[in-house]
């Protein structure tokens, strides 16, 4: 086969030679013809029509920073434009303004098309991050103040731990407050005046604190909110040796537990 | 302290009458006098005028036996301590030094019998001896002579050695005094080495402190920075129970003198107050763990708790019968003002002991026969009153008033020899700890700094 290919290659060379020959002949022929036509004078070419002006465009947003839910006004102007559109809005007049309320920060793009081309203009509107929610009011601080204003200690007679008739109103008021503020927890401390003996007074103070706790439970306050403690005569509220101070010390004292 | 006693000299034990029995008879006589006269009588005179025979003892200062410069100071401490111990004992008629002969003995060979006889000082017993320092060691020799027995007078002969410090001199004096008291006091050990535990606020907080029975060597035991009250030492002296204000409530806490620190004890919840030891190491106390303050008992480790009272109380301040361990006296407000009651150690047979007024802080005598307590018999509305200390024979319910017109007196506690009572009194304007003989005489102030309360005497 080797011999056959070589033969084929030689054949192509011959064909090429032939085509070249014909091209040359044609070209010579056309030159001769044209030369014959060029003998007459040509008319001047018509002036080209003037090129169309490129469109201009401008776009602005006022204000360019808003809070969520606020509006801004887009304003634009174009020249030499036949088609003007704004992304997200659609086709618009060649000049105009439009109020928009973007939910998020947006870059508005205006496209002005005209015979002279296309012009783009952008305007950026920034939407501020939502302001932080105001902190919820702290209930414990307010509760403690209300507690101090509204919860009254209960006072006792000498050597007694029963709730006196003239203390019932205060006790009921204390119970109502505690029922209205169900999250509050308390300790009732039992105290005694300076007379009497250290050990017996600690026991009597326990009885007083228990009496107050039991009365509160009777009035509907849950017992697991109430702790009791006795201080006997160890932590007096005053130290004078008279009945007025002694009465001050004979009490069930309410303590707000944080 | 490394106290060595060498062999005693030959001695001749004297049989004495039971001085304790005499004392008991004396009190019984006093009580009969009271009941015969009238209960309405405010107070009666007690003391030696009722014919109780006390041993007339002479105790001249010990003499120096060496030339050491330290002798002077140690002799001062020794002689003062020995004199106070003998004077405090309650069983001696201690002859005044102003009646002593000019020449006093430091050795048996120096004793001149006649110089101690009538008319003055007219002593029947003589305690004498010497003290000397040699090279930082102190040696004390002491004798007790029966002056009526000319042929064999020696009752007691002792020698003590220790390092030459005032503390050692003080301790030797206590030991020698106790030897004399034991021999002449009917076989009841002296209290010169006993301790008193009490509450003091001198650091700014009420903490538990301890001191020698005569008020010396006051030292702080607890450092809890809270309010710690009602100290009660165990019978063997190894543990101190007390009540302290913890975050969750008052709890019974325990201090170990074996380990010199706080040790764990069961927590009960509620208000736990006024612990008291039985002779076999159980504890009684007041607890509100089940609601009202009632009396409970537990064993020494805090287990096996038993509720003894079930009323509304408040019940507090139990004290165990130290002799039998089978009865407990306590305070209850079940009828109104606090009164003293007794009951069996299982809670049965509750008996009311006081009939009126405001009665608190009972303490049972070591021989099981008497209660001492604080009583405001004259009570009126708004009256601050005067709490006085009383002594009551439990079997007959007859009582004797021990303090008179001397402010608020509370928390009396018996000494282990049954002859003394330590208590707190406001008579000086602040609360201080005092001791006295159980007939109300010989009152001595033991504390000065701060406010000092609730004394508790060791059991030996």
In total, the number of strands of chain B is 31
- CA-atom Rg of chain A in angstroms: 52 Å
Percentage of helical residues of chain A? 25-40%
The number of distinct helices of chain B, counting runs of at least 4 residues, comes to 3
Query: Helix proportion of residues of chain B, in percent?
Result: 10-25%
The name of the CATH topology of the largest domain in chain A is: 60s Ribosomal Protein L30, Chain: A
> What is the makeup of the main sheet of chain B?
7 strands, mixed
CA-CA gap between termini of chain A:
109 Å
Describe the structure.
The complex is a heterodimer of chains A (258) and B (460). Chain A is an alpha+beta fold and 258 residues long. Chain A folds into 2 domains: 56-127, Immunoglobulin-like (Sandwich); 139-257, OmpA-like domain (60s Ribosomal Protein L30, Chain: A, 2-Layer Sandwich), CATH 3.30.1330.60. Chain A contains 5 helices and 12 strands. Chain A has helices spanning 2-37, 139-150, 168-180, 198-218, 243-249; strands at 56-62, 65-66, 72-79, 83-86, 90-92, 96-100, 106-114, 117-127, 154-155, 185-191, 226-232, 251-257. A 5-stranded mixed beta sheet of chain A has the order 2-8-7-4-5, with no helix packed on it. In chain A, strands 9-12-10-11 form a 4-stranded mixed beta sheet. Chain A has a 3-stranded antiparallel beta sheet with strand order 1-3-6, with no helix packed on it. Chain B is mainly β. Chain B has helices at 19-37, 71-88, 166-184; strands spanning 4-5, 55-58, 63-64, 92-94, 125-134, 137-146, 154-163, 195-200, 207-212, 219-220, 228-233, 239-245, 250-256, 261-263, 272-277, 283-287, 294-298, 306-307, 315-320, 327-332, 339-344, 351-352, 358-364, 370-376, 388-393, 398-401, 409-414, 420-425, 432-437, 444-445, 452-457. The chains are: A alpha+beta (258), B mainly beta (460). Chain A binds chain B through residues 158-159, 161, 195-200, 202-204, 206-207, 210, 229-231, 234, 241, 243, and chain B through 206, 227, 229-230, 243, 245, 249-250, 270-271, 273-274, 286, 288, 291-293, 312-317, 331, 333, 336-338, 358, 360-361, 374, 381-382, 384-385, 387, 410-411, 453-454.
């Amino acid at each position: 086969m080797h011999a056959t290919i070589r033969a084929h290659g030689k054949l192509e060379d011959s064909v090429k030679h032939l085509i070249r020959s014909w091209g040359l002949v044609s070209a010579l022929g056309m030159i001769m013809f044209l030369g014959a036509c060029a003998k007459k004078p040509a008319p001047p070419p018509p002036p080209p029509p003037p090129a169309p002006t490129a469109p201009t465009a401008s776009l602005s947003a006022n204000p360019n920073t808003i809070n969520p839910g606020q509006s801004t006004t887009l304003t634009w102007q174009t020249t030499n434009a036949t088609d003007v559109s704004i992304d997200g809005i659609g086709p618009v007049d060649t000049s105009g303004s439009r109020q928009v309320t973007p939910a998020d920060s947006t870059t508005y793009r205006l496209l002005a098309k005209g015979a002279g081309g296309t012009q783009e203009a952008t305007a950026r509107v920034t939407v501020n991050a939502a302001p932080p929610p105001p902190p919820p009011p702290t209930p414990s601080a307010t509760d403690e103040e209300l507690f101090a204003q509204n919860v009254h200690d209960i006072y006792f007679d000498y050597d007694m731990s029963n709730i006196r008739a003239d203390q019932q109103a205060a006790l009921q008021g204390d119970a109502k407050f505690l029922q209205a503020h169900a999250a509050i927890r308390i300790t009732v401390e039992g105290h005694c005046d300076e007379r009497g003996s250290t050990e017996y007074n600690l026991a009597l103070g326990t009885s007083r604190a228990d009496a107050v706790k039991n009365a509160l439970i009777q009035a509907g306050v849950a017992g697991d909110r109430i702790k009791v403690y006795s201080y006997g005569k160890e932590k007096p509220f005053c130290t004078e040796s008279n009945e007025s101070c002694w009465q001050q010390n004979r009490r069930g004292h309410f303590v707000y537990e944080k | 302290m490394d106290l060595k006693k060498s062999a005693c000299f030959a001695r001749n034990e004297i049989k004495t009458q039971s001085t304790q029995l005499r004392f008991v008879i004396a009190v019984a006589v006093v009580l009969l006098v009271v009941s015969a006269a009238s209960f309405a009588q405010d107070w009666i005179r007690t003391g030696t005028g009722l014919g109780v025979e006390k041993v007339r003892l002479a105790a001249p200062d010990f003499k120096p036996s060496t030339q050491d410069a330290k002798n002077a100071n140690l002799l001062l401490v020794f002689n003062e301590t020995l004199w106070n111990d003998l004077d405090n004992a309650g069983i001696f008629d201690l002859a005044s030094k102003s009646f002593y002969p000019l020449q006093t003995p430091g050795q048996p060979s120096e004793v001149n019998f006649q110089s101690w006889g009538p008319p003055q000082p007219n002593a029947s017993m003589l305690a004498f001896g010497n003290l000397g320092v040699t090279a930082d060691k102190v040696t004390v020799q002491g004798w007790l002579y029966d002056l009526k027995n000319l042929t064999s007078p020696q009752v007691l002969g002792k020698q003590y050695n220790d390092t030459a410090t005032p503390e050692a001199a003080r301790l030797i004096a206590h030991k020698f005094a106790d030897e004399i008291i034991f021999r002449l006091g009917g076989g009841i050990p002296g209290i010169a080495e006993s301790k008193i535990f009490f509450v003091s606020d001198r650091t700014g907080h009420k903490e538990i402190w301890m001191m020698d029975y005569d008020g010396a060597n006051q030292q702080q035991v607890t450092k809890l920075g809270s309010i710690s009250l009602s100290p009660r030492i165990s019978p063997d002296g190894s543990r101190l129970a007390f009540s302290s204000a913890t975050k969750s409530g008052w709890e019974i806490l325990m201090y170990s003198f074996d380990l010199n620190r706080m040790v764990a004890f069961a927590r009960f919840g509620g208000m736990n107050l006024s612990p008291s030891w039985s002779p076999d190491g159980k504890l009684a106390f007041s607890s509100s763990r089940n609601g009202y303050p009632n009396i409970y008992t537990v064993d020494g480790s805090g287990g096996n708790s038993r509720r003894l009272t079930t009323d509304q109380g408040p019940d507090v301040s139990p004290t165990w019968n130290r002799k039998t361990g089978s009865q407990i006296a306590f305070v209850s407000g079940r009828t109104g003002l606090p009164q003293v009651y007794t009951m069996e150690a299982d809670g049965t047979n509750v008996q009311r002991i006081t009939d009126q007024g405001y009665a608190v802080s009972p303490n049972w005598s070591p021989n099981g026969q008497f209660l001492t307590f604080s009583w405001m018999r004259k009570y009126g509305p708004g009256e601050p009153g005067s709490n006085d200390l009383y002594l009551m024979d439990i079997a007959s319910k007859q009582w004797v008033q021990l303090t008179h017109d001397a402010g608020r007196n509370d928390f009396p506690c018996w000494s282990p020899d049954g002859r003394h009572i330590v208590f707190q009194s406001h008579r000086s304007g602040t609360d201080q700890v005092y001791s006295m003989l159980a007939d109300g005489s010989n009152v001595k102030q033991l504390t000065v700094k701060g406010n000092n309360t609730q004394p508790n005497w060791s059991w030996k």
